[in-house]
Amino acid sequence: LTLSNITAQESKTTLAVLDFEGRGINTLEAATLTDRFTSEIGKTESMVLVDRTMVEEILKEQGFQQSGCTTDECAVEVGAMLGVQFMISGAIGKLGDTFTIDAKMVSVESGASVETRNVTYIGKVDGLVTEIELLAWDIMNLEAPEALKEKKRLGAEAFFAAQAKQKTRTGALLRSMAVPGFGQYYAGKKLMAAGILVSELAVLGLYASANSAYTTATDDFNNYQNLYNTEKDPVMIADYRSKVNSSHDDIKSNKDLMNQMAMAAGGIWALNVIHAFLIKPDNVTASKEPLLRLAYDPQTKSPQLRFSIALD
């Protein structure tokens, strides 16, 4: 990150999330859903988010029970202690087979609600995970990622089953190690795959041709050398000597060509493997979370750099 980028990040507004109140679901389920909501808020990168462990530490130090902080007044008071500009609180309720999620963003400075959202969901409780992830983008007034929308459309189980069948960089890498260009074909880059395969085959063809010529020149050299050693006629001796020298030159030139073609084939193979790993297969929804992001530390009232890496 450059200094200007860090300054821009520091100018972002700060936000903290309180545990959602569970009404008809147990505390563990409410906490788990709050964790997923907070993580998804972080992915939006629209505000600098206070790490939840820091929120819990400060609340514990001040004698607050976060599960009991359900009013706007309490949220504002906690937000002032954390030094953030906005607080999000909410409740998750259940009535029969119907679940409701209510979320509210409150301005710490004014105490007024700036955003309110509610979701109604009918189904199993684990389906709330997708709903609360979508809610995180909605309350920030941002468009949810296509993968998240697809997850809701298919259902979590079908979505993850489809993801398991998706093509990966590792799959492309292994295929290109076996056959040059096969990884690119697997990734949907068919023109590139054809170019790599044709190039590799052309170089291997030249190597085979040079190897054949090398074998012929070697046989000629041995044959002429034997004739040269046994010949008595001076004219024939001179002729065989010339042929021995010519065969020796052919051996050297074809050996050099074989070495060059072997190096070229190895180079094409290596570049093909690297390229296969770097390209993204057409149907892969790779993680778009940045390697570096900022998290707000209320103790120092300054952002912290966090590092993460996706292994897909």
Supply database-style keywords.
alpha/beta, two-stranded antiparallel ribbon, 312 residues, disordered N terminus, rod-shaped, Rossmann fold, 2 domains, six-stranded mixed β-sheet
Account of the 3D structure:
Strands 1, 2, 3, 4, 5 and 6 form a 6-stranded mixed sheet that branches. It is built from 11 helices and 8 strands. With 312 residues, the chain is an alpha/beta fold. Helices cover 57% and strands 16% of the residues. It has 2 domains: 3-165 and 285-307, ABC-type transport auxiliary lipoprotein component (Rossmann fold); 170-278. It is rod-shaped. Mean pLDDT is 83; it is low at 1-10, 284-291 and 308-312.
Question: Summed up, what is this model?
Answer:
With about 300 residues, this protein is an alpha/beta fold. It has helices at about 5-10, 25-45, 50-60, 70-80, 130-140, 145-155, 155-165, 170-180, 180-185, 190-230, 235-280, and strands spanning about 15, 20-25, 50, 85-95, 100-105, 115-120, 290-295, 300-305.
